[in-house]
Specification:
Layout: H1 11-15, E1 16-22, E2 37-38, E3 41-42, H2 43-51, E4 58-62, H3 65-68, E5 75-77, H4 84-95, E6 100-105, H5 113-124, E7 130-135, E8 138-147, H6 151-159, H7 165-172, E9 175-177, H8 179-185, H9 198-210
Parallel strand pairs: 1-4, 1-6, 4-5, 7-9
Antiparallel strand pairs: 2-3, 6-8, 7-8
Helix pairs in contact: 4-6
């Protein structure tokens, strides 16, 4: 059972649905990432467990429903496949049954509980469009919390052949956790570590072996 951060309360569970994006082709890794085992656990399940304390339920957004049934997660199919992460975000906003959606990538297993809690706490105070992080590499679309009412704007953006997530973020002017705040909550920046290649996966496995207690307490 997951413990609830007392500062957030149970109201967040009524406000936020979780979505895990697994619609990519995994070309660089050479196999499906969502079901790839890291320390005996599928990557998507690492992400689902990180989101669980903050959301009513977590859904996997996928183009491979049969392949992902064994994960045991609720599944939704991409509204329009092969549109990149923004296509997955569009699907999440379409299916969300809550005002907000906490969205993360299936290949980011090291999400910081403290960082996710900070995003949720900021969103609980009121969010017009989205709450995301900024690192020294720029705005980070995921993990992020998005208002479902953004759906029409996102659909219009995609219809105009826009697929760049950071350009969409610049247009909607989200609330942003500063690089300094992000660094305090996730000093090593592991929340933004995506496993895209076999080398990335090997490095992640090594990291877990060296730091078995990698997740800080919330």
């Amino acid at each position: 059972m997951h413990s609830m951060n007392p500062e957030l309360g149970t109201r967040n569970l009524e406000l936020i649905s979780g979505f895990i994006l697994a619609g990519g082709m995994s070309r660089r890794l050479g196999r499906d990432k969502a079901s790839l085992l890291l320390k005996g656990k599928p990557l998507a399940c690492w992400v689902a467990e990180a989101l669980a304390p903050l959301v009513s339920e977590s859904w996997l957004v996928t183009n491979q429903v049969l392949a992902h049934l064994e994960l045991g997660l609720p599944l939704v199919t991409d509204l329009r496949p092969r549109q990149g992460p923004l296509g997955g975000l569009e699907t999440a906003l379409f299916y969300a049954c809550t005002p907000l959606a906490l969205v993360a990538a299936a290949d980011a297993p090291f999400l910081s509980p403290r960082l996710l809690a900070a995003l949720a706490a900021r969103a609980a105070k009121g969010v017009r469009t989205a709450v995301v992080c900024r690192t020294h590499a720029g705005l980070q679309p995921f993990p992020g919390i998005y208002a479902v009412k953004l759906l029409n704007r996102l659909t219009a953006f995609l219809n105009d052949d826009g697929r760049q997530a950071r350009r969409f973020l610049e247009q909607i002017r989200p609330q942003v956790l500063s690089p300094e705040e992000v660094a305090r909550l996730d000093p090593e920046g592991l929340s933004f570590l995506n496993l895209n290649t076999p080398e990335d996966f090997t490095a992640a496995a090594r990291l877990l072996a060296e730091q078995p207690e990698i997740f800080p307490a919330v």
